[in-house]
Amino acid sequence: MTTAAYPHLLAPLDLGFTKLANRVLMGSMHTGLEEERGGFAKLAAFYQARAKGGVGLIVTGGVSPNLRGRIAPFGSELSHFWQVNKHKQITKAVHQYPTKICLQLLHTGRYAYHPFAVAPSKIRSPISPFTPSAMSVRQIKSTIKDYAYAAKLAAKAGYDGVEIMGSEGYLINQFACIRTNKRADEWGGSIDNRMRLAIDTIKAVRAKVGEQFIIIFRLSMIDLVEGGNSWQEVVTMAKAVEKAGATLINTGIGWHEARVPTIVTSVPRAAFTWVTERMKQEVTIPLITTNRINTPGVAENILATGQADMVSMARPFLADPDFVNKAANDKADEINTCIGCNQACLDHVFEQKRASCLVNPMACYETELVLEKANKSKKLAVIGAGPAGLAFSVYAAQRGHQVELFDKGSEIGGQFNVAKQIPGKEEFFETLRYFNKQLSLHGIKVHLNSDLAIDNCAEELLLSGFDEVILATGIKPRKLTIDGLDDGIANGKVLSYLQVLRDKIEVGKNVAIIGAGGIGFDVAVYLSESLPADSAEKPLSHDLDAWLKNWGVDKNYQQSGALLNKADITKHTPTRNITLLQRKPSKVGKGLGKTSGWVHRANLAKHAVTMVAGATYKAITDQGLLIEVDGNEQLIEVDNIIICAGQEPNRDLQQVLLAGGLPVHLIGGANVAAELDAKRAIRQAAELAVKI
């Protein structure tokens, strides 16, 4: 492995009793495989792929040290000797490569999704339906012993260490903060008392496993909630963690209930490394920084400027298991970059489904979605260069098929070219960069501005020797039935979302958006936040200080939790009056992802966007849009109405191709057009490529 391209990132880290191959930590992610029947064999393959890809240190998904600390009733736990053999599958698989692996020990406390939840005090979490029991002193001491015993079992299983989860609002973090710790005994009150659970746990673990065992402590350096710790309290705790025997301190950012986004795609890259850098002045053991680090260049800069000693990346290793090796071989342009969407990873976990990755559906399916060489190489025509068509082309070419890609547009990307223009979604540029590189690497012929005529396309493709055709032609608008719609279209009052986002047609000051799915929200964000072409400002996702102030984060850390006073948070003067409407009576945006939907709603609220549910569209008039809500008619006076609802699969070529004798496969929007869904489109592409 060369260090020329990224010398700091690829430099080894000497921990005294052991050495890490580089400064890259694969951060903890719960995948759902921990609870599946036969899941540990799949987990072993998952982690092994990342070890083979060059990562220096892996931290597993959270495993509870006892029953009450489980995430859910059947959540993963390590507290019995018979459980060791399951974990040995993982450590043996990883240790075939020069990678270390640590088991994360996580007690959920009041975040537990079961009625046996316990916490420092009887205070229910806003994100859990169960009120916890306040722990007795005996339970606290028993829990500390459980941590130590779980660590001993981890060592028996072959793990190189453990990470003790002390952040993100879980049990140890709950004890550390007055927000959730109202105790009047020796486990509450002063920071010295509140941090006792953390410190006594580290000491107990160290006593049980000895000196030559990695102990990472995940310290909440910035709580981002009212009642969180002050900077001085965090420093006090960090110094005590170091003294207690921790090997490394990992940076924890924000509680799960915090109303500040910390990992979604609109968060600027490396948005919180400043807090790790500040902590480096206070302790001497190596510090790990984290959150929204997704390229080797960003990671290298963090280490080169002394902000941290290691970087933690979790989701980027879902997107590309070979991240480190590609960086080491100076092939960063071949990395499948994490776009921070959360749609297939965190959203799946919260829905109690197996995690995966939108841009890499093979993640967590390493033993099931396998791109083996095809028995017979076929010549395949892929029509449509959107997410589905791009993904299929690359996967099929990897299997040895001869692939040609056709698109009527002048560039690849399809709907991704729309998405990349939305403020906060600039990461989609990375996905298109990746696919462009893969098309070149695999010798895939790309025919842009293609003029395949519907009536003779089958003949053209047959004459060219294609064996099968994959239709990835996306969606087309479905005509809505609203009185006055045709007149509105004719006079320019009514626009489609493509006319706004792709064609850049001018939009007036007063706007109604019909349809509050992902497209509707994207249009609302675009109209609220897009800067004029001649603006000297940078978008929030590229201006860290402005982004922090917008979300109420105090970089100077003057108050507990590092939250700004409400008066100091950025106030937006709306540039437009926007009304976002949906037919469904449910909460507007309910169908958006669990981990990102609240961010989108909060963001639009900052821009005073009006959200209306249960709307019936009565008529479009010269004055605006007439709607009915709860039996009451109202006229929304607008300059423009933007249609973000009503689409159907674009299958115009299907029957012509079938009639011409060519086998046809439908993927992506051409298959189902309920909502533009890149996650489903790319996964369909992978599933078809594996079997074709």
Automatic annotation (TrEMBL):
What protein name applies here?
NADPH-dependent 2,4-dienoyl-CoA reductase
Names of required cofactors: FMN; [4Fe-4S] cluster
Superkingdom of this protein's organism: Bacteria
Query: InterPro entries attached here?
Result: Aldolase_TIM, FAD/NAD-bd_sf, FAD/NAD-binding_dom, NADH:flavin_oxidoreductase, OxRdtase_FMN_N
The residue ranges of the FAD/NAD(P)-binding domain are 379-661
Question: Entry's CDD domains?
Answer: DCR_FMN
> Entry's Gene3D superfamilies?
Aldolase class I, FAD/NAD(P)-binding domain, NAD(P)-binding Rossmann-like Domain
Report domain NADH:flavin oxidoreductase/NADH oxidase N-terminal positions: 9-333
For this UniProt record, the keywords arranged alphabetically read as follows: Flavoprotein, FMN, Iron, Iron-sulfur, Metal-binding, Oxidoreductase
Q: Acetylation among the record's keywords?
A: no
Q: Which species is this UniProt entry from? A: Colwellia echini
Query: What is the similarity comment for this entry?
Result: In the N-terminal section; belongs to the NADH:flavin oxidoreductase/NADH oxidase family.
